[in-house]
């Protein structure tokens, strides 16, 4: 069964450093998403991406964040200058269509900012 | 504003019994609802969804009920098994070009062997 994959599974970084989280969405999907989950809290939407541009983003997704689809298979989330409060699980998701199409989630990357 | 929340943070159920997990939402514009299961250290896993033009949908051992009058959603798991132990999130999405899924706070289901 096709699945979303993410690398690395765990990333540790120093405050102020840049990190890139990587995702490989399901191959025939067209819509891509990033969510995050701070420990013990609910999953929060960050951004959606379609046709090589951001289609929707939350207030969390400020100028420190960016997304990119550098090739036909990868989807990345970059945090330019990490802060302590960026420590969380980051989930990538993809769907075949917009809105009410089912989003399938990857296993997540645990980001720890020291 | 939009809000998806859960009534109970933890639910303990004896193995073999049926489980019912409840969820309330406040946004009348919500028209698509999803239940996700999240096991420890893993991403949310799609279980079942329902659109607002339906009031019931069944899957394998799971049933989702939607009551739009009181803005209430429930997930029923039949013959609960130890492998069902996880956190269950109800989530909401809206048609009309919106793409983000809004998650509730989650209910932890503990299955007692």
Tell me the number of helical segments of chain A per DSSP (H or I, 4 or more residues long).
0
- What percent of residues of chain B are in strands? over 45%
Content-based structural category of chain A? mainly beta
Order of helices and strands of chain B: EEEEEEEEEEE
End-to-end separation of chain A in angstroms reads: 37 Å
Descriptive notes:
The complex is a heterodimer of chains A (114) and B (113). Chain A is mainly beta and 114 residues long. Chain A has strands spanning 5-7, 10-13, 19-24, 31-37, 44-50, 53-57, 65-68, 75-79, 88-95, 104-105, 109-113. In chain A, strands 2, 4, 5, 6, 9, 10 and 11 form a seven-stranded mixed sheet that branches. In chain A, strand 4 (31-37) and strand 5 (44-50) form a beta hairpin. Chain B is mainly β and 113 residues long. Helices cover 0% and strands 53% of the residues of chain B. In chain B, the strands form two sheets. In chain B, strands 2, 4, 5, 9, 10 and 11 form a six-stranded mixed sheet that branches. Chain B is globular and about 40 Å long. The model of chain B has no long low-confidence stretch (mean pLDDT 88).
């Amino acid at each position: 069964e096709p699945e979303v994959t993410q690398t690395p599974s765990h990333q540790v970084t120093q405050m102020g450093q840049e990190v890139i989280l990587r995702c490989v969405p399901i191959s025939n999907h067209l819509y891509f998403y990033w969510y995050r989950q701070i420990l013990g809290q609910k999953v929060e939407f960050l951004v959606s991406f379609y046709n090589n541009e951001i289609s929707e983003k939350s207030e969390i997704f400020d100028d420190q964040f960016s997304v990119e689809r550098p090739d036909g298979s990868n989807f990345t989330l970059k945090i330019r200058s990490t802060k302590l409060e960026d420590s969380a699980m980051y989930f990538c998701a993809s769907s075949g269509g917009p809105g009410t199409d089912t989003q399938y989630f990857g296993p997540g990357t645990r980001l720890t900012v020291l | 504003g939009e809000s998806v929340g859960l009534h109970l943070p933890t639910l303990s159920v004896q193995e073999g019994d049926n489980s019912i997990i409840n969820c309330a939402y406040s946004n009348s514009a919500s028209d698509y609802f999803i239940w996700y299961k999240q096991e420890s250290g893993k991403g949310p896993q799609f279980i079942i969804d329902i659109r607002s033009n339906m009031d019931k949908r069944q899957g394998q051992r799971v049933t989702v009920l939607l009551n739009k009058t009181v803005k209430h959603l429930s997930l029923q798991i039949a013959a609960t098994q130890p492998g069902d132990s996880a956190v269950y999130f109800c989530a909401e999405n809206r048609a009309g070009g919106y793409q983000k899924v809004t998650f509730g706070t989650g209910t932890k289901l503990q299955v007692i062997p």
